[in-house]
Design brief:
The strands form two sheets. Strands 5, 6, 7, 8 and 9 form a five-stranded mixed sheet that branches. It is built from six helices and nine strands; from the N terminus they run E-H-E-E-E-H-E-H-E-E-E-E-H-H-H. The chain is elongated and about 55 Å long. 34% of the residues lie in helices and 26% in strands. The model has no long low-confidence stretch (mean pLDDT 96). It is an alpha+beta fold.
């Protein structure tokens, strides 16, 4: 068995497609009209209720029970790009987690939580460039040295 994709409900397939293409640079892999699959494995579905056989009123916006996560190498540039979207509703300001990764969370056009964080490899490299040893980075991030080494070599 292999993982195929994650499908999210959208109100307007064309608006949602533009949002994900323009803001995140996603590329369409398959376009079935009311269903679009991006190369990353995220899929958008208009008329989700029809697809899964649920009453329309049971498909909720802002259910706040999952998030779509992205990592960005140019995090500050992304934040500047995000400011151009005046209709974005943020869940808060940029935060830095205890493991050192900065993230921003906001809702997409259909009320799904989106998290964009710094690329984890860049976070590790930032700590190393600041003079921390790999063991100190391991302790700070609560990740094994072996996992950090695998990340750095990927």
């Amino acid at each position: 068995m292999k993982y195929s994709c994650t499908v999210i409900s959208v109100t307007d397939i064309n608006s949602a497609r533009r949002f994900y293409e323009d803001l995140f640079g996603l590329k369409v892999f398959q376009d079935y009209g009311k269903n679009i699959v991006f190369t990353c494995g995220l899929a958008l579905q208009q008329d989700f209720d029809w697809l899964v056989g649920l009453p329309k009123d049971s498909v909720l916006k802002k259910s706040n029970n999952m998030e779509i996560c992205f990592e960005e190498q140019n995090f500050d540039s992304f934040l500047n790009k995000l400011k151009k979207y005046s209709n974005i509703q943020y869940l808060g300001d940029v935060i830095e987690h205890s493991w050192g990764q900065r993230v921003i969370r906001f809702y997409d056009l259909d009320g799904h939580i989106v998290e964009v964080g710094e690329d984890m490899k860049m976070v590790v490299n930032r700590f190393l460039a600041a003079g921390m040893t790999i063991e100190e980075v391991s302790a700070k991030m609560d990740v094994s040295v072996a996992d950090l080494t695998r990340l750095l070599n990927s």
